[in-house]
Protein backbone atom coordinates (compact mmCIF):
# COMPACT_ATOMS: atom_id res chain seq x y z
CA UNK A 1 0.00 0.00 0.00
CA UNK A 2 1.18 3.53 -0.79
CA UNK A 3 0.85 5.06 2.67
CA UNK A 4 2.03 8.45 1.45
CA UNK A 5 -0.71 8.52 -1.16
CA UNK A 6 -3.28 7.28 1.36
CA UNK A 7 -2.42 9.99 3.88
CA UNK A 8 -2.47 12.73 1.24
CA UNK A 9 -6.14 11.90 0.63
CA UNK A 10 -6.96 12.89 4.22
CA UNK A 11 -7.98 16.51 4.67
CA UNK A 12 -5.39 18.74 6.45
CA UNK A 13 -2.66 16.38 5.17
CA UNK A 14 -0.89 18.54 2.60
CA UNK A 15 2.82 18.61 1.79
CA UNK A 16 2.49 21.49 -0.66
CA UNK A 17 4.07 24.20 1.52
CA UNK A 18 7.84 24.28 1.97
CA UNK A 19 8.27 24.13 5.75
CA UNK A 20 12.05 23.77 5.51
CA UNK A 21 12.40 27.43 4.62
CA UNK A 22 11.75 28.45 8.23
CA UNK A 23 14.75 26.50 9.49
CA UNK A 24 17.32 28.39 7.43
CA UNK A 25 16.41 31.98 8.27
CA UNK A 26 17.36 33.92 11.39
CA UNK A 27 15.09 36.43 13.11
CA UNK A 28 16.26 39.32 10.93
CA UNK A 29 15.66 37.36 7.75
CA UNK A 30 12.19 36.32 8.85
CA UNK A 31 11.40 39.93 9.77
CA UNK A 32 12.47 40.97 6.29
CA UNK A 33 10.19 38.33 4.76
CA UNK A 34 7.26 39.45 6.94
CA UNK A 35 7.67 43.01 5.68
CA UNK A 36 8.08 42.08 2.02
CA UNK A 37 5.43 42.25 -0.70
CA UNK A 38 5.59 38.43 -0.86
CA UNK A 39 4.28 38.02 2.70
CA UNK A 40 0.74 36.76 3.24
CA UNK A 41 -0.96 36.60 6.64
CA UNK A 42 -3.59 34.15 7.89
CA UNK A 43 -5.50 35.83 10.75
CA UNK A 44 -6.89 33.63 13.50
CA UNK A 45 -9.51 35.03 15.89
CA UNK A 46 -9.75 32.92 19.06
CA UNK A 47 -10.24 29.48 17.47
CA UNK A 48 -11.67 30.67 14.15
CA UNK A 49 -9.96 31.31 10.82
CA UNK A 50 -10.51 34.04 8.27
CA UNK A 51 -12.12 32.88 5.01
CA UNK A 52 -13.31 34.59 1.85
CA UNK A 53 -16.21 33.63 -0.37
CA UNK A 54 -15.29 33.89 -4.04
CA UNK A 55 -18.17 33.04 -6.36
CA UNK A 56 -19.56 30.54 -3.89
CA UNK A 57 -16.18 28.91 -3.16
CA UNK A 58 -14.66 29.36 0.29
CA UNK A 59 -10.94 30.16 0.28
CA UNK A 60 -8.34 30.92 2.90
CA UNK A 61 -8.10 34.71 3.31
CA UNK A 62 -4.35 35.22 2.96
CA UNK A 63 -3.93 38.99 3.19
CA UNK A 64 -1.04 41.42 2.76
CA UNK A 65 0.50 43.27 5.69
CA UNK A 66 -1.15 46.61 4.90
CA UNK A 67 -4.59 45.00 4.94
CA UNK A 68 -3.74 43.16 8.15
CA UNK A 69 -2.79 46.43 9.85
CA UNK A 70 -5.88 48.28 8.61
CA UNK A 71 -8.39 45.62 9.66
CA UNK A 72 -7.01 44.00 12.80
CA UNK A 73 -4.85 44.46 15.86
CA UNK A 74 -2.45 41.57 16.40
CA UNK A 75 -2.45 39.47 19.57
CA UNK A 76 0.64 37.47 18.66
CA UNK A 77 3.82 37.94 16.66
CA UNK A 78 3.53 36.38 13.19
CA UNK A 79 4.40 32.67 13.06
CA UNK A 80 6.20 31.66 9.89
CA UNK A 81 4.53 28.68 8.22
CA UNK A 82 6.60 28.36 5.05
CA UNK A 83 6.80 29.20 1.37
CA UNK A 84 4.58 28.27 -1.54
CA UNK A 85 4.58 29.66 -5.10
CA UNK A 86 7.10 32.31 -4.03
CA UNK A 87 4.78 33.60 -1.29
CA UNK A 88 5.65 33.44 2.40
CA UNK A 89 2.82 32.56 4.76
CA UNK A 90 2.46 33.69 8.36
CA UNK A 91 -0.20 32.84 10.96
CA UNK A 92 -1.16 35.60 13.36
CA UNK A 93 -3.62 35.83 16.23
CA UNK A 94 -5.80 38.93 16.01
CA UNK A 95 -8.48 40.98 17.71
CA UNK A 96 -11.38 41.81 15.42
CA UNK A 97 -14.03 44.52 15.35
CA UNK A 98 -17.66 43.38 15.48
CA UNK A 99 -18.15 43.82 11.74
CA UNK A 100 -15.15 41.58 11.06
CA UNK A 101 -15.95 38.75 13.48
CA UNK A 102 -18.62 37.22 11.23
CA UNK A 103 -16.03 36.74 8.49
CA UNK A 104 -14.18 34.20 10.64
CA UNK A 105 -15.27 30.58 10.39
CA UNK A 106 -15.13 27.43 12.50
CA UNK A 107 -12.65 25.33 10.54
CA UNK A 108 -14.24 22.05 11.61
CA UNK A 109 -17.50 23.15 9.97
CA UNK A 110 -16.07 24.96 6.95
CA UNK A 111 -13.17 22.65 5.99
CA UNK A 112 -15.30 20.59 3.59
CA UNK A 113 -16.06 23.76 1.62
CA UNK A 114 -12.37 24.62 1.15
CA UNK A 115 -9.95 23.12 -1.34
CA UNK A 116 -7.48 20.66 0.16
CA UNK A 117 -4.53 23.08 0.13
CA UNK A 118 -6.42 25.90 1.85
CA UNK A 119 -7.82 23.52 4.47
CA UNK A 120 -4.32 22.21 5.20
CA UNK A 121 -2.85 25.72 5.42
CA UNK A 122 -5.56 26.97 7.79
CA UNK A 123 -5.29 23.80 9.88
CA UNK A 124 -1.55 24.39 10.21
CA UNK A 125 -2.12 28.03 11.24
CA UNK A 126 -4.80 27.13 13.78
CA UNK A 127 -2.78 24.31 15.34
CA UNK A 128 0.44 26.31 15.82
CA UNK A 129 -1.36 29.33 17.32
CA UNK A 130 -3.44 27.14 19.62
CA UNK A 131 -0.23 25.56 20.90
CA UNK A 132 1.29 29.00 21.51
CA UNK A 133 -1.82 30.21 23.33
CA UNK A 134 -1.81 27.18 25.62
CA UNK A 135 1.91 27.47 26.46
CA UNK A 136 2.41 31.10 27.40
CA UNK A 137 4.26 30.01 30.54
CA UNK A 138 7.07 27.54 31.02
CA UNK A 139 5.86 24.14 32.16
CA UNK A 140 8.96 23.71 34.31
CA UNK A 141 9.19 26.97 36.26
CA UNK A 142 6.09 28.99 35.33
CA UNK A 143 7.94 31.98 33.85
CA UNK A 144 6.54 33.58 30.68
CA UNK A 145 7.72 32.20 27.34
CA UNK A 146 8.72 34.09 24.19
CA UNK A 147 8.64 32.82 20.59
CA UNK A 148 11.85 31.84 18.83
CA UNK A 149 12.69 30.34 15.41
CA UNK A 150 9.78 31.95 13.61
CA UNK A 151 7.34 31.01 16.38
CA UNK A 152 8.04 27.27 16.31
CA UNK A 153 9.87 27.31 19.63
CA UNK A 154 8.76 28.94 22.88
CA UNK A 155 11.64 29.73 25.22
CA UNK A 156 11.40 30.32 28.95
CA UNK A 157 12.38 33.90 29.87
CA UNK A 158 13.90 32.88 33.21
CA UNK A 159 17.65 32.87 32.46
CA UNK A 160 18.23 30.13 35.04
CA UNK A 161 15.70 27.86 33.35
CA UNK A 162 15.73 29.04 29.70
CA UNK A 163 14.03 25.84 28.53
CA UNK A 164 12.88 25.51 24.95
CA UNK A 165 9.40 24.17 24.33
CA UNK A 166 8.40 22.69 20.98
CA UNK A 167 4.94 22.29 19.42
CA UNK A 168 3.00 19.45 20.96
CA UNK A 169 1.11 16.93 18.88
CA UNK A 170 -0.90 14.29 20.71
CA UNK A 171 -0.87 10.89 18.95
CA UNK A 172 -4.18 9.06 18.82
CA UNK A 173 -5.23 5.85 17.14
CA UNK A 174 -8.41 5.43 15.15
CA UNK A 175 -9.30 1.97 13.90
CA UNK A 176 -11.90 0.16 11.84
CA UNK A 177 -12.26 -3.35 13.27
CA UNK A 178 -13.61 -6.17 11.10
CA UNK A 179 -15.06 -9.56 11.97
CA UNK A 180 -16.24 -11.55 8.98
CA UNK A 181 -18.27 -9.23 6.77
CA UNK A 182 -19.07 -6.79 9.56
CA UNK A 183 -17.32 -3.72 10.98
CA UNK A 184 -17.42 -2.37 14.52
CA UNK A 185 -19.05 1.00 15.22
CA UNK A 186 -19.52 2.93 18.44
CA UNK A 187 -21.36 6.03 19.57
CA UNK A 188 -21.03 8.39 22.53
CA UNK A 189 -24.01 9.68 24.47
CA UNK A 190 -23.15 13.33 23.75
CA UNK A 191 -23.12 12.86 19.97
CA UNK A 192 -26.13 13.72 17.75
CA UNK A 193 -28.77 11.02 17.50
CA UNK A 194 -27.69 8.02 15.39
CA UNK A 195 -24.10 9.26 15.00
CA UNK A 196 -21.63 6.37 14.82
CA UNK A 197 -17.89 6.25 14.25
CA UNK A 198 -14.89 3.95 14.42
CA UNK A 199 -13.00 3.31 17.67
CA UNK A 200 -10.42 5.92 18.73
CA UNK A 201 -8.29 6.95 21.68
CA UNK A 202 -5.00 8.55 22.69
CA UNK A 203 -1.71 6.66 22.81
CA UNK A 204 -0.47 6.41 26.40
CA UNK A 205 3.11 6.86 27.66
CA UNK A 206 5.25 3.74 27.26
CA UNK A 207 2.89 2.28 24.68
CA UNK A 208 3.36 1.49 21.01
CA UNK A 209 0.71 2.61 18.57
CA UNK A 210 -0.21 -1.01 17.86
CA UNK A 211 -0.60 -1.70 21.57
CA UNK A 212 -2.87 1.34 21.80
CA UNK A 213 -5.08 -0.13 19.05
CA UNK A 214 -5.49 -3.37 21.01
CA UNK A 215 -6.04 -1.61 24.35
CA UNK A 216 -8.52 1.01 23.17
CA UNK A 217 -10.71 -1.49 21.34
CA UNK A 218 -10.69 -3.81 24.36
CA UNK A 219 -11.39 -1.01 26.85
CA UNK A 220 -14.24 0.53 24.91
CA UNK A 221 -15.92 -2.55 23.42
CA UNK A 222 -14.44 -5.70 24.97
CA UNK A 223 -13.45 -6.90 21.50
CA UNK A 224 -10.06 -8.61 21.12
CA UNK A 225 -7.88 -7.40 18.24
CA UNK A 226 -5.70 -10.19 16.83
CA UNK A 227 -4.25 -8.37 13.82
CA UNK A 228 -3.78 -4.74 12.82
CA UNK A 229 -2.57 -2.92 9.73
CA UNK A 230 -1.58 0.73 9.32
CA UNK A 231 -3.79 2.66 6.90
CA UNK A 232 -2.81 6.37 6.95
CA UNK A 233 -2.53 9.41 9.22
CA UNK A 234 -4.24 12.78 9.54
CA UNK A 235 -3.28 15.91 11.46
CA UNK A 236 -6.37 17.00 13.39
CA UNK A 237 -6.09 20.66 14.49
CA UNK A 238 -8.87 20.53 17.11
CA UNK A 239 -6.73 21.37 18.97
CA UNK A 240 -3.58 19.41 18.03
CA UNK A 241 -3.73 15.66 17.47
CA UNK A 242 -2.20 13.29 14.96
CA UNK A 243 -4.73 10.59 14.08
CA UNK A 244 -3.03 7.29 13.22
CA UNK A 245 -5.47 5.24 11.20
CA UNK A 246 -5.55 1.44 11.33
CA UNK A 247 -7.66 -1.46 10.18
CA UNK A 248 -7.86 -4.52 12.40
CA UNK A 249 -9.28 -8.01 12.67
CA UNK A 250 -11.19 -9.20 15.73
CA UNK A 251 -10.74 -12.63 17.25
CA UNK A 252 -14.28 -12.73 18.64
CA UNK A 253 -17.37 -10.60 18.22
CA UNK A 254 -18.77 -10.40 21.75
CA UNK A 255 -19.18 -6.77 22.87
CA UNK A 256 -18.83 -5.53 26.43
CA UNK A 257 -18.65 -1.79 27.18
CA UNK A 258 -15.88 -2.00 29.75
CA UNK A 259 -15.05 1.66 30.44
CA UNK A 260 -18.50 3.06 29.55
CA UNK A 261 -16.92 5.69 27.31
CA UNK A 262 -19.30 4.55 24.61
CA UNK A 263 -23.06 4.52 25.00
CA UNK A 264 -23.35 1.78 22.40
CA UNK A 265 -21.20 -0.40 20.16
CA UNK A 266 -22.44 -2.70 17.42
CA UNK A 267 -21.36 -4.77 14.44
CA UNK A 268 -22.84 -3.85 11.06
CA UNK A 269 -22.51 -5.48 7.67
CA UNK A 270 -22.42 -3.31 4.56
CA UNK A 271 -26.05 -4.15 3.84
CA UNK A 272 -27.09 -3.32 7.41
CA UNK A 273 -25.19 -0.06 7.14
CA UNK A 274 -26.97 0.98 3.92
CA UNK A 275 -30.34 0.00 5.39
CA UNK A 276 -29.68 2.22 8.39
CA UNK A 277 -28.49 5.08 6.18
CA UNK A 278 -31.70 4.94 4.16
CA UNK A 279 -33.96 4.99 7.21
CA UNK A 280 -31.93 7.66 9.00
CA UNK A 281 -30.59 5.41 11.74
CA UNK A 282 -26.91 5.79 10.84
CA UNK A 283 -25.25 9.20 10.77
CA UNK A 284 -21.61 8.77 9.67
CA UNK A 285 -18.68 10.80 11.00
CA UNK A 286 -17.89 14.04 9.21
CA UNK A 287 -16.49 13.47 5.70
CA UNK A 288 -13.42 15.58 6.58
CA UNK A 289 -12.26 12.94 9.09
CA UNK A 290 -10.02 9.91 8.70
CA UNK A 291 -12.79 7.92 10.41
CA UNK A 292 -14.99 8.52 7.37
CA UNK A 293 -12.12 7.42 5.10
CA UNK A 294 -11.67 4.17 7.03
CA UNK A 295 -15.37 3.35 6.75
CA UNK A 296 -15.41 4.41 3.10
CA UNK A 297 -12.48 2.20 2.12
CA UNK A 298 -13.96 -0.81 3.93
CA UNK A 299 -17.42 -0.28 2.42
CA UNK A 300 -16.23 0.30 -1.14
CA UNK A 301 -14.27 -2.95 -1.28
CA UNK A 302 -17.50 -4.88 -1.83
CA UNK A 303 -20.07 -2.35 -3.04
CA UNK A 304 -20.59 -0.91 -6.53
CA UNK A 305 -22.22 2.28 -5.22
CA UNK A 306 -19.59 4.25 -3.24
CA UNK A 307 -20.19 4.95 0.44
CA UNK A 308 -19.88 8.70 -0.11
CA UNK A 309 -22.74 8.59 -2.63
CA UNK A 310 -24.93 6.67 -0.20
CA UNK A 311 -24.23 9.32 2.44
CA UNK A 312 -24.94 12.23 0.11
CA UNK A 313 -28.19 10.71 -1.15
CA UNK A 314 -29.42 9.97 2.36
CA UNK A 315 -28.12 12.98 4.29
CA UNK A 316 -30.60 14.83 6.54
CA UNK A 317 -32.39 17.58 4.61
CA UNK A 318 -33.11 21.07 5.85
- CATH class term of the largest domain: Alpha Beta
At the fold tier of CATH, the topology name of the largest domain is Nucleoside Triphosphate Pyrophosphohydrolase
What is the rounded distance between the termini?
Answer: 40 Å
DSSP E strands, number: 16
**What is the chain-wise order of helices and strands?**
HHHEEEHEEEHEHHEEEEEEHEEEHHH
Q: What helical percentage do the residues reach?
A: 25-40%
CATH-level-2 architecture of the largest domain: Alpha-Beta Complex
Quaternary assembly: single chain
Q: How many independent structural domains?
A: 2
Class by SSE composition: alpha+beta
What radius of gyration results from the CA coordinates?
22 Å
**Per the principal axes of the C-alpha atoms, what is the gross shape?**
globular
Average per-residue pLDDT, rounded, comes to 94
The biggest sheet amounts to: 7 strands, mixed
User: Percent of residues in beta strands?
Assistant: 25-35%
Stretches where pLDDT falls below 50 for ≥5 residues? none
Tally of individual helices? 11
CATH superfamily of the largest domain: Nucleoside Triphosphate Pyrophosphohydrolase
Keywords:
single chain; 318 residues; alpha+beta; Nucleoside Triphosphate Pyrophosphohydrolase; 7-stranded mixed sheet; 11 helices; 29% helix; 31% strand
Describe this structure in words.
With 318 residues, the protein is an alpha+beta fold. It has 2 domains: 136 residues, Alpha-Beta Complex (Nucleoside Triphosphate Pyrophosphohydrolase), CATH 3.90.79; 144 residues, Nucleoside Triphosphate Pyrophosphohydrolase (Alpha-Beta Complex), CATH 3.90.79. It has 11 helices and 16 strands. Strands 1, 2, 3, 4, 5, 6 and 7 form a 7-stranded mixed sheet that branches. Strands 11, 12, 13, 14, 15 and 16 form a 6-stranded mixed sheet that branches. A 3-stranded antiparallel sheet has the order 8-9-10, with no helix packed on it. Strand 9 and strand 10 form a beta hairpin. The chain is globular and about 60 Å long. The relative contact order is 0.13.
Amino acid sequence: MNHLGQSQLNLFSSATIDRMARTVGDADELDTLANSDRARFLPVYNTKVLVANKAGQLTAAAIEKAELASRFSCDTPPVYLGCKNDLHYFAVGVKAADEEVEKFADLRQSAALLNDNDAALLGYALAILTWQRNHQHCGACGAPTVPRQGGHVLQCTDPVCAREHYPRTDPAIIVLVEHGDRALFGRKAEWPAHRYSTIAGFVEPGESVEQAVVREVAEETGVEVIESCYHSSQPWPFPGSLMLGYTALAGRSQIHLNDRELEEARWLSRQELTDRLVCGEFLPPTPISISFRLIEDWFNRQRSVPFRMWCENNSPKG
